[in-house]
Amino acid sequence: MRFSRQRELVADIVSGRKDHPTADAIYLSAREIEPNISLGTVYRNLKLLADEGRLVTLETSDKKIHYDGDLSIHSHFICEDCGKIIDLFESAHSHELLENMGLSVSSEKCFYYGKCSDCKR
Amino acid sequence: MRFSRQRELVADIVSGRKDHPTADAIYLSAREIEPNISLGTVYRNLKLLADEGRLVTLETSDKKIHYDGDLSIHSHFICEDCGKIIDLFESAHSHELLENMGLSVSSEKCFYYGKCSDCKR
DNA sequence: AAAATAAATAGTAATGATTACTATTATTAT
DNA sequence: ATAATAATAGTAATCATTACTATTTATTTT
User: How far is the C-alpha of A58 from the C-alpha of A84, rounded, in Å?
Assistant: First the structure.
């Protein structure tokens, strides 16, 4: 896999952010540095980077894929009111149980839903 | 919320199945009993039932929403090869940790990825 | 270094799951 | 029974994502 200016840029944007941007948000950021980059290029590279395991996709109920450049095992809390996604770096589920069931686990995605402290008030 | 024949049917199909069907699969099942039911009605009712908490939506990477009528807290294992979704009725994460962070948890969705025993071989 | 080969891009068109819309039908209330 | 309300069927619109194509950029070969 070659790393063109555009691909590098997309990868850098995702791993440089602590939120969980959508393709469109990444596209907007990218255009500030590479004004001619096309949306298709952003999508293509996001998909390639995800396939390579260089970023993680979060499929939420808003129908848009969110991208996470933080590859450490962690979960996410999604606020039902404001939609904010909060990282949860608690200890992960034990995978042993699943291995004992004949399932080999390569990754996990856990989402918790509720109200964040702002919206709870 | 009135329970029309169609709404009842959609609800029954989802809660009667142990797989995790998409809207289209539910539509096909529904048409066997109610041949004139429209796809829009299926979608509308699935959304309403989900809002009411009578079923759970699973947003997977195949871009189609899967519906789960089993409301007990459980996780899912998704096979990276065949896409099969397997229920995991292990004990859930403890929510106390999150409550202590000021997050009130109303539900959770956890996905584990890997290869199922069939595909592993 | 020029020619040949391969990969990546920009820009646009197509896809497809989901939602919105509208006229009609069914249900409930007065 | 009539009026008011909700739900439906069927179709059109939406919109995130993908596919496509001609062109550009990078790599390899001679």
Answer: 13
- For residues B48 and B84, the answer to whether their CB atoms sit within 8 Å is no
C-alpha distances in Å from residue A93, one per residue of A45, A98, B102: 31, 10, 21
Q: How many CB pairs under 8 A join A and B?
A: 99
pTM for this entry: 0.88
Instruction: Name, of A20-24, B96-100, B111-115, the range with top average pLDDT.
Output: A20-24
| Residue B111 at interface with chain A, using a CB cutoff of 8 Å | yes
- How far is it, in rounded angstroms, from Cα A112 to Cα B109? 6
Determine what percent of chain A falls in helix, strand and coil, rounding each to the nearest 5: 35, 25, 40
Residues 87-106 of B with CB under 8 A from A: 88, 90, 93, 95, 97-98, 101-106
Each residue of B5-51: pLDDT tens digit? 999 999 999 999 999 999 999 999 999 999 999 999 999 999 999 99
- Closest CA to the C1' of D9: that residue is B38
Domains located in chain B, CATH noted? 5-68 (1.10.10.10), 75-120 (3.30.1490.190)
A107 to chain B: which residues are within 8 Å by CB? Answer: 112-114
Q: What is the mean pLDDT of each run of 10 residues along chain A (121 residues)?
A: 92 96 98 97 97 94 95 84 80 59 69 78 73
